């Protein structure tokens, strides 16, 4: 069943997102007003070290008032490649720079019924510590977590972000 977007009107805009109201025609001909969030692409990056540990951030999300392990992430800036954004975010948020080439892991649309957000997850075989993270306010701590513990952490609700769940489960599967 195809829903047709017959046009959108902007409702609100800021540097992070745009809210539009879409006129949607349903398959039976009825019309529906549907709010749509338009967002810039997001890039995520982590690394796996020689001990088979994955680099994660422990952080609080005020919107859901929850704590959890996440992968360093941020928006892709204008003119920046997705891969470059992923590497930049990893270094800014963790203090670790990918030591090998970044490998694309998965691309997800975490809320495609409401938003056009696309999240690109990358990983590197190893990382080099370059110093205290520039954006240390992003997380309570940064840690190397055994990759074998990832499924359990997800099951316990300690990894809640959809992009991190998808990326970490796939990474665990590929390296098992």
Structure description:
- This protein has helices at residues 82-94, 150-155, 162-175; strands at 4-13, 17-25, 31-39, 42-48, 53-61, 66-70, 72-75, 96-98, 103-108, 119-125, 127-129, 141-146.
- The chain has 176 residues and is of the alpha+beta class.
- The chain has two domains: 4-39; 42-175, Nucleoside Triphosphate Pyrophosphohydrolase.
- β1 (4-13) and β2 form a beta hairpin.
- The longest helix is centred in the last third of the chain and has 14 residues, at 162-175.
- The chain is elongated and about 55 Å long.
The H-and-E topology, N to C, reads as EEEEEEEHEEEEEHH
Strand content: 35-45%
Across the major sheet, the strand order is 7-4-10-9
Q: What about the largest sheet?
A: 4 strands, mixed
| Terminal residue distance | 39 Å
CATH-defined topology of the largest domain: Nucleoside Triphosphate Pyrophosphohydrolase
- Average per-residue pLDDT, rounded, comes to 96
Helix content: 10-25%
Question: CATH homologous superfamily of the largest domain, by name?
Answer: Nucleoside Triphosphate Pyrophosphohydrolase
Which spans have pLDDT < 50 for at least 5 consecutive residues?
none
**What is the CATH domain class of the largest domain?**
Alpha Beta
Shape: elongated
Structural class: alpha+beta
Tally of individual helices: 3
CATH A-level architecture of the largest domain: Alpha-Beta Complex
How many domain regions?
2
Supply Rg: 18 Å
Number of strands: 12
């Amino acid at each position: 069943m195809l829903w047709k977007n017959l046009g959108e009107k902007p409702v609100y805009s800021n540097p992070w997102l745009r809210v539009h109201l879409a006129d949607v025609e349903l398959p039976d001909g009825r019309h529906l007003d549907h709010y749509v969030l338009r967002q810039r692409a997001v890039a995520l990056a982590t690394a796996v070290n020689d001990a088979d540990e994955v680099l994660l951030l422990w952080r609080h999300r005020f919107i859901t008032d929850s704590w959890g392990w996440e992968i360093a992430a941020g928006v892709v800036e204008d003119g920046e490649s997705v891969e470059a954004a992923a590497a930049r975010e990893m270094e800014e948020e963790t203090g670790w720079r990918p030591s090998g080439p970044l490998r694309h892991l998965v691309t997800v649309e975490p809320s495609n019924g409401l938003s056009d957000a696309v999240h690109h997850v990358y990983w590197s075989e190893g990382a080099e510590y370059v110093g205290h993270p520039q954006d240390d306010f992003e997380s309570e701590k940064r840690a190397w977590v055994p990759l074998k513990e990832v499924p359990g952490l997800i099951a316990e609700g300690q990894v809640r972000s959809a992009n991190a769940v998808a990326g970490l489960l796939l990474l665990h599967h590929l390296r098992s």
